[in-house]
Amino acid sequence: MSTKADRTVDRIQQRLVDYSCRLRYEELPDTTIHAAKVRLIDTLGALIGGFDGEPCRIVRKTAARVPDSGGATVIGTAGMTTPDLAAFVNGTTARYVEMNDVYHWPGSSGGHPSDVVAPILATAEHARAGGRDLLAAVVLGYEIYLRLSDAVHSEGFDPTNFCTLGTAAAAGTLVRLSPDQLARCIAMAAVPSNILKSVRTGHLSMWKAVAAGHAGRAGVFSALLARDGMDGPSLPFEGAGGWCAHVAGKRFSLDVMGGDGAPFKIEGTMIKPRASCASTISSILAAEKVAPSVKGRVADIARVTVEVYERAKVGMGTGEHHWNPVSRETADHSIPYVTAAALIDGTVTPRQFDDAHRHNPALRALLPKIEVVANDEFTRAYERLPVEHRTRVHVVMRDGERFTGESGGDRGDLSDRKSDAEIAEKFLGLTEEFLGIARAGGILERLWTLEKLDDVAVVPRDFARDEGGTTR
Fold this sequence. Notes:
Elements: H1 11-22, H2 30-49, H3 54-64, E1 67-73, E2 80-81, H4 83-96, H5 117-127, H6 131-151, H7 160-174, H8 179-190, H9 207-227, H10 243-248, H11 278-294, E3 301-308, H12 310-316, H13 328-331, H14 335-345, H15 355-358, H16 361-366, E4 370-374, H17 376-382, E5 391-397, E6 402-407, H18 420-435, H19 437-448, H20 458-462
Parallel strand pairs: 3-4
Antiparallel strand pairs: 1-2, 3-5, 5-6
Helix pairs in contact: 1-8, 2-4, 2-6, 2-18, 3-4, 4-5, 4-9, 5-6, 5-7, 5-9, 6-7, 7-8, 7-9, 8-9, 11-14, 18-19
């Protein structure tokens, strides 16, 4: 049955099916292929960096109850579970440490498009796909995620919903769904799997990271169901009860997609240099420039003013929870917290969010002295292209001495493209303790030449650590 003759398939659904079925590795520009490798390397590094997080341990425990030797690997272990549960565990773990890439385009919903990577890799392993098919699937998952992010801005729904749809289409291509099956897969991803914005509002919980794994799992599960013959809801986007009316809140189209002269969106995402929410990173970078001047004198700080763009102020510098974070998840989304941590410790790494740091009396004493304000000039720089994440940190000491640090634009910006050497340094920094120097370097070399692999199943298995917690 042709989906074009099927009255249960709507225009957006058909567009996603047609685009997904046409995309081929051989037609991708070299820069796009390289960008896909970079995002795979970056996401896998973040996954290992977050491996020992509490929610990551919990979801591994859950998946261990469902072994499946024909499924996919729980990365960091030798264990295997169903492909959808592997997507859940690996997606959660990759998201936990706040080191995976981020997206901002003026007017977009933003989000973390690398949320698609771990679920797509789990499906590729299960399907015994080659490196070229994996890279093409990652490009596809990103493209759908990011074009939806540009087209849809919903106050009530989280951007992880774009992950569900991007993952579903990419997973569907990897398990070789027909166009009709892929239409069903996309319908099953679109209708029942929508995540509310409350996962990222107020005092944050473990679910901030788990939402990414949940979204990825829903996409993979939809592909597996479609492969086995399950039908999906009719008119999932444009029907009276569909995604446009109730999630997007409007009709939209996806007329422009990567290829045929249009750039692929994967090349426009930003690689994080610090383990924190993207809207807090410019505050960290600015505070780092002041930190040497106040080293050993933090108790003598009278007040700190952090000037940021409006979106950062509203999202990460408004509300009492940002001055009293009770969880890691709230702390890494708090401008006051990360500014205080950077001033005290000189930088911010994943360790700055552990219990000892969050309850440090010196940090707690500094938090009430920090004010976050919106700077109109910085807001304008954030809302135009090229996007600039500008921040200024002013520190006034009790004796009247003043220090200022600035970041963004030509002072170093989150948007700056990272070199391959910087990508490698970040990956090795996140993985060497877990894997050992030799293994981490060997894995990195394999990932840079991923297109040469006939079976990508070796990639997740490379990361296994034995049950005693030591590397193989």
